[in-house]
Design brief:
This protein is mainly alpha-helical. The chain is built from 15 helices and six strands.
Length: about 300
């Protein structure tokens, strides 16, 4: 069963960006399984007036669940209008008999969700811009919102209002940074907190995008992200610099940095059976991927990622 992550080529930007939709609620891990179970049995769920009743939440939260299910790639984008059906990835994760992690309790699940949300402008543009476009290490919420608005001008369509952008940024920050004050239940349960990709600087209104070795990031998921990145570029290889700094690259999205990424690349050959291989010749360091575009092999890498103990 295959699934896709569409990382846009910078010369061919997506025609539609997504802002807001989360109704200011951060993602809760159990929402995705709930949405999967209900949509599997009722493809018209999110078109129903009583969808919030069946989901057991308020109206706004029901809209948020739909937003996060789409942003995380759990709903099939190819479904007809008015129909919601689980994506192939959702089946891999949540199937009652063989799901890889139905309740999203592993680090692999958190990294996968972050990758899904942050690698596609059409899914959640503020996430994409923060982890792929923003170049500064430190920022304030207002500065990040302004930068996201500027980045959105490179795409077709209307740029959201400053208030909408700021609400998006506030939700993003609460998704990755635990609040010192008593936080609402939704923030306490967000699976992205443990990734530590964003850090609040003490006694300031500033934040920091962290760069680290990411020991909880499974080799299988890193390898899969590399393969999808080069595949979306129409190639079978990429330089270390591209993989570290390019928009949609594993280095940017996972906050690895070139040195941390390089340290992990050399053993991916053995870990993936040669599907991802690092090489260096005449001072040029690159990664070469075998059988790029083979969805079944990519599924195997994802399964391997959830088998890793980290």
């Amino acid at each position: 069963m295959s699934w896709t992550v569409a990382v846009p080529h910078p010369d061919h930007p997506t025609t539609s960006l997504t802002f807001s939709g989360h109704e200011t609620f951060v993602l809760r891990a159990h929402w995705l399984k709930k949405a999967y179970d209900l949509v599997r049995d009722d493809p018209a769920l999110f078109q129903r007036e009583d969808a919030f009743v069946r989901l057991g939440v308020g109206r706004n939260m029901a809209q948020s669940i739909r937003h996060w299910a789409r942003a995380c790639g759990m709903l099939d984008d190819a479904a007809p209008a008015g129909v919601s059906r689980p994506s192939a990835l959702a089946h891999l994760l949540f199937d009652d008999a063989a799901g890889l992690d139905p309740f999203l309790v592993t680090p692999a699940a958190a990294w996968l969700l972050h990758w899904q949300i942050s690698s596609r402008p059409a899914a959640a543009f503020s996430w994409y811009a923060t982890f792929n476009v923003w170049r500064g290490a430190e920022f304030t919420a207002d500065a990040l919102a302004d930068a996201i608005g500027q980045a959105a001008r490179d795409y077709p369509g209307r740029v959201p209002s400053p208030a909408t952008l700021r609400r998006d940024v506030d939700c993003l920050l609460r998704s990755y940074v635990r609040q010192d004050r008593a936080a609402p239940d939704d923030a306490l349960l967000c699976p992205l907190h443990d990734l530590r990709l964003v850090r609040a600087l003490p006694a300031t209104d500033r934040y920091h995008l962290t760069s680290a070795a990411r020991p909880t990031l499974p080799d299988g998921l890193l390898a899969l992200a590399i393969r999808r990145y080069v595949h979306n570029k129409g190639r079978t290889f990429a330089s270390y610099a591209e993989l570290s700094y390019g928009a949609g690259s594993p280095g940017r999205i996972f906050g690895l940095g070139e040195d941390s990424l390089a340290a992990r690349l050399w053993h991916l050959d053995g870990a993936t059976g040669g599907l991802v291989r690092a090489s260096e010749s005449a001072g040029v360091r690159q990664v070469v991927c075998a059988q790029v575009g083979d969805a079944l092999l990519d599924d195997d890498l994802l399964r391997a990622a959830f088998r890793e103990v980290r």
